[in-house]
Amino acid sequence: MNKINWKRKLTSRKFWAAVVGFVTQLMAMLNVSDNTAVQVTALIMAGGTLIAYIIGEGLTDAANIGAQEGEK
Questions:
Q1: Whole-angstrom Cα distance, residue 23 to residue 56?
Q2: CB atoms within 10 A of CB 34
Q3: pTM for the structure as a whole
Q4: Cα dihedral angle (44, 46, 48, 54), rounded to 10 degrees?
Q5: What is the pLDDT of residues 14-54, one digit of tens each?
Q6: Is the backbone of residue 31 left (phi > 0), alpha (psi -120 to 50) or beta?
């Protein structure tokens, strides 16, 4: 069995869309108000965007450091 590539998964828009879809349907099943569902969905997408940005910047920084070490 293959390991899950969490960096790739957490930066995937499809993954975050699936999480939002699941949570939204779960809240609908639990009769949560529409306003609360919208707020939770916005919070998940904001968190997903932040995580993707942080991981992306970390990978870019790591690549730049590797390139600088190769020049020495």
A1: 25
A2: 9
A3: 0.67
A4: -150
A5: 888 899 999 999 999 999 999 999 999 999 999 988 998 99
A6: left
